[in-house]
Design goal:
The protein has a domain at 1-50: Transcription factor, MADS-box (SRF-like, 3-Layer(aba) Sandwich), CATH 3.40.1810.10. 62% of the residues lie in helices and 7% in strands. It has helices spanning 2-10, 34-78, 88-145, 148-153, 159-164, 192-195, and strands at residues 16-20, 26-30, 182-183, 189-190. A two-stranded antiparallel sheet has the order 1-2. A two-stranded antiparallel ribbon has the order 3-4. Strand 1 and strand 2 form a beta hairpin. The protein is elongated, with a radius of gyration of 52 Å. 1% of the residues are buried. It is found in: Nucleus. It comes from Gnetum gnemon (Spanish joint-fir). Residues 54-144 form the K-box domain.
Amino acid sequence: LKKAYELSILCDAEVALIIFSSTGKLYDYCSSSMKVLLERYENDFREKGTARDQEIDNGDVLKAQQQVAELERARRQMLGEDLEGLSLKQLQILEANLETALNRVRNRKGVQILKDINDLQRKGQEILEENNRLRQQLRQRYNNRAPLENFEAEESLPIGQLLAHEPPQSQSSDSISTSFSLKLGNGVVIPDNEVSDTSLHLGLPSHS
């Protein structure tokens, strides 16, 4: 404490001294007000710390800007731009990098093409399975409601046409339109398109 007092006198300075003994006892000395001096110290430390942090932040910003500029220049060079300042060795390195990137793109393209082909094959297989399932349902339906030969005659038709063909429904004798050829006793054949809308009157032939 005596040395602190002498230092404040010799240097004409404000001195504050805080001491904690090994037993935890506090000793302090201040040439003026301890509270005022500590506030001045805290304010000065805060201001200098802020300025120091600002310098660090400015340095980080400048470094980040330089990195962004380097990346932008590299991007343009990968696109074949801004090549004037490159040496022969730098151009060779850039060419090798471009070849590597191109090979990666080609490999990825091949993988994607194979994936698309597999997806199309899978979808095609699903369509075939669905087609077979529909044919099986139609087979059962025709077996139950129509003669088997009718279904076999239409077996080769596409599914859409098969769905459009309904099995013949039972009709009354009054509503059936004839679609056959009528052979008369004297050997004359009337085509079905003429018989379909013709009313037949059977009877003995008249003699003139």
